[in-house]
Amino acid sequence: MTVEDPIHLGLHVRHAGSEGAERTTAPRDPASEPGGRKAEFVAFHRRELDAILNIYGRMVAAGEWRDYAIDFLKDVAVFSIYRRTSEVPLYRVEKRPRLRERQGAYSVVTATGLILKRGHELAQVLRVFDRMLMKSVRDAG
After folding, report:
1. 7-66, pLDDT tens digit by residue?
2. Which long-range contacts (CB under 8 A, 24 or more apart) does 124-129 make?
3. Contact (CB, 8 A) for 15 and 82
4. Nearest to residue 88, comparing CAs of 79, 76, 97, 80?
5. What phi and psi, each to the nearest 5 degrees, are found at residue 35?
6. How far is 138 from 69, CA to CA, in rounded Å?
7. Tens-digit pLDDT profile for residues 109-132
8. I need a surface site. Which of 16, 102, 110, 124 has the fewest CB within 10 A?
9. How many helices (H) does the chain have, and how many strands (E)?
10. Distances (CA, A) of 137 to 22, 57, 62, 68, 132
11. Angle between helices 128-140 and 46-61 (to 10 degrees)
């Protein structure tokens, strides 16, 4: 596996520390598909997931977030962020490759559907959380 290979965690994965952790069957390996077809879903690559989990870990340490879920769907990969497991996600980090040539493949979306940031570079899009992290650190001190 190279750094650019997608992370195949399953179609829906909850953080292992959450109550009622749920897992579905792992997606099919594209190499095992007849004719070597590509996978039929969008996934985060290792570097993308590392960047998202870096921000997630910092916000967990600040006491703002407590759970996450990852969904790999046909047209979009979604990293959902929760304050509590039983709630709707506070934020969704989405990867939509079809928008790569237009607004950019990456976006951060609120629970109400408001797009906070959209762009071609994931690191730039994730900077929207830096302000939230600075505010929570300032409020804690």
Report:
1. 555 444 444 444 433 333 344 444 444 555 555 889 999 999 999 999 999 999 988 899
2. 125/93, 126/51, 126/52, 126/55, 126/93, 129/55, 129/59, 129/91
3. no
4. 80
5. 75, 10
6. 28
7. 999 999 999 999 999 999 999 877
8. 16
9. 3, 6
10. 32, 14, 7, 21, 9
11. 20
**Which of 68, 50, 52 lies closest to 108, judged by CA?**
52
What are the residues whose beta carbons fall under 8 Å from the beta carbon of 73, sequence distance 6 or more?
11, 41, 42
8 A C-beta contact, residue 56 and residue 64:
no
H/E stretch holding 123:
helix 122-126
The structure tokens listed for 39 are 């996978």
> Is 120 in contact with 100 (CB distance < 8 Å)?
yes
Neighbours of 103 (CB within 10 A): 13
Q: In what order do the strands lie in the sheet with 67-72?
A: 12-14, 67-72, 77-82, 91-95, 106-110, 115-119
The answer to whether 79 and 92 are in contact (CB under 8 A) is yes
**CB count, 10 Å around CB of 68?**
21
